[in-house]
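Q: Could you write out the predicted structure for this multi-component system? I'm mainly interested in how the pieces pack against one another.
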Amino acid sequence: MAIKSRDRIRAKLQDGNTVVRILLAHPMHTGRGKNEQDELIPAEFIQDIRCWRNDDQVLTIKCGTATSRNPYFAFQLTGGEAGDVIRLRWVDNIGAKGTAETTVV
Amino acid sequence: MTEKFDEYRRTLIKQSISASTLALVAASGLVIPRVLLAHWPQDAFNAETLEDAILTFLGEAEEVNEEAIQFTIGSPPTYAVNGATVPVEISSSLQNIQRVALLVEKNPFPLAMALEPTSAVSFPFKTMLKVAEDSEIIAMVRADDKLYRTSRYVEIDIGGCA
């Protein structure tokens, strides 16, 4: 199970754009990996990530099993100013979910 | 006396309101993932061939093989030591991008990641993928009802168990 507080999100202004970096804490089991006892680890991976800036949804990311463990994303938002709230929400295939929030600096 | 009673009544009301809100939140928490899951394009992610995945997620459109997308993969480019974390960076000068798909040809399920950006998102977009073995990695962008396709070959030292 993912621990909520370990999801990290940073946003800062750079040349007039907002640079957002996200690091989620999630094992991202594909369902094909095995543990030490040679048993299959059931699939557990993030499927859907949504990002908001203030109240506008700006990006939807759908992930398959091929997203790396502890998924990392970085992208830019046009414009923006200090104090904007960047909010993120993820859901995985077994229904666990998490949120992360930050303000632009 | 009545004041005290009022106060008690108030806290009682407050508590019952917060309790019912909590119940609502819990109920909605059970409902939300199912709603979101319905939006996950299962057919596209479970497609086992490249063509199927592309067709299911991006739809049919005129395909343009163009240099409008810049795409780097691996560090250093075209080579990755660990297939479990292969850095991918995609940038594009295109406008009106509707969808972006990242596909790994040799993975059991080629579609690795799918983005639906709005006009507020500007590229580059960076992320990390799992790549099972040496493979062609393809980035496809759907913009203005055209498909733009670029691909890079990446060599993997240790398979990523994708």
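A: Regarding packing and overall arrangement: The interface with chain B takes residues 17, 30, 32-33, 47-48, 53, 56-69, 71-79, 91, 93, 95, 97 of chain A (CB under 8 Å).
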